[in-house]
Amino acid sequence: MYSFENREMDEFFQTLSPLIQHSIIMCDLKPRTLEELRTLADTMAEGQ
Q: The pTM is what?
């Protein structure tokens, strides 16, 4: 299971669909803040 060191980021990540989680894991972008993670997830969800 993939996890972030930041608890808030990790909790948010766990709420995402498996497809979005997999996409985030596989991309080369590594979000450093919760806001970056939310933006990345939103962008990926729009592309589906």
A: 0.86
